[in-house]
Amino acid sequence: MEKLRKAVNEIAYAHDHAKLSPLQRSFVPVLSFASTLYKLALSLRRALYNFGLFREHRLPVPVICVGNLTWGGNGKTPMVEFIARWLADSGISPLILTRGYAGGDEAKMLQRHLLGRPVKIAIGANRAAIASSFLKEYGYVDPHSNNTYSYRTQGHPDSERIGAAILDDGMQHWSLRSDLKIVMVNGLMLWGNSQLLPLGPLREPLNALERADVVVLHHADLIPEQSLKDVELTVREIKEYLPIFFTRMAPSHFFDVGNINSKKPLTALTNTIVLCVSAIGSANAFVQGMKKLGAFYVDQLEFSDHHIFQPKDIEMIRERLGELEKRFGTKPAVIVTEKDYDREPAILKLLDPFQVMALCSELQFIPNKGCTGDSFKKLIKELLEHKFPGAC
């Protein structure tokens, strides 16, 4: 399955099919047919919502959608955390609505990072229904009535009343209406061959950017300046005055997988042999980041996004570690992301006596033409207050 996934991924990001292997080229007609069926299903689904045959639910609080147009690695979870932290620190209790993919890695990481703040995390595929249940349990702040509490429940303080919802991975979640749409774009991968799934990486055609209120180009620090300009040009051709922001993942420290409270500086990798093991949407960004931290040599093992590590995977990792140790004459260290740790922390301990550390990073805005983290917050506040006076 991993080999098939990698083959399909290479096809999706290949601009010239002549450069594909004969086996990969044999997949193209099948994937093309499936992509056509997907396009028809997408159009039908959209039409059913437009004609009111499928119901679009509306929440009584502002809904901020953080989504994308391609599969994984676009920085949605870090952006959700950034917005939730900002809202909570501004006195607004947010409700994060996440589907909770295999292992619930993203939700676990969010819970840990936002611990102590009045942030609630709801997990489930039917996010409209689960949002309604949370609003009923905790109550909510009505943005149309000077922030007075329009619904009250027993046993919860006023500070827990929900003031906004953040819809994680919600660009294609049409059953819940969003008041503000933030589209994340992976600067390293962009839109591949610009084809719809599964022939390409697109969940929707690029003209879906017309529905966006803000575009954020993630991993902008890892791509050439000309590529940044090309992306801006593409976006402007679709929606001329769409605000564009640049972000990066800034490493902060490591912790040992056997002790989450340990905190090791980034210099811990200096002159070491490193094996990056990841099951995330943008493994290349992770590896490039590690190379910048001064390791002597960086190798990698990549699994599909949200993959849950199995004993056979641990044996594969051990085999690669043995090869590296034999080659360099010293024990290599294993580095995983926080999402990989949160997915299944116990199994990573089976790599003992090799050192296994998780990298902690945070989303940072890269100043560009006056667009900064502060101006992003200001824009989000203005857009929300335009639709919900007094909401922020």
TrEMBL record:
Pathway: Glycolipid biosynthesis; lipid IV(A) biosynthesis; lipid IV(A) from (3R)-3-hydroxytetradecanoyl-[acyl-carrier-protein] and UDP-N-acetyl-alpha-D-glucosamine: step 6/6. Keywords: ATP-binding, Kinase, Lipid A biosynthesis, Lipid biosynthesis, Lipid metabolism, Nucleotide-binding, Transferase. InterPro entries: LpxK (IPR003758). It comes from Ziziphus jujuba var. spinosa. The keyword Transferase applies. HAMAP family: LpxK. The keyword ATP-binding applies. It is an enzyme of class 2 (transferase). GO terms for biological process: lipid A biosynthetic process. Its EC number is 2.7.1.130. GO terms for molecular function: ATP binding; lipid-A 4'-kinase activity. This is tetraacyldisaccharide 4'-kinase. It comes from the Eukaryota. Transmembrane segments: none annotated. Pfam families: LpxK. GO terms for cellular component: membrane.
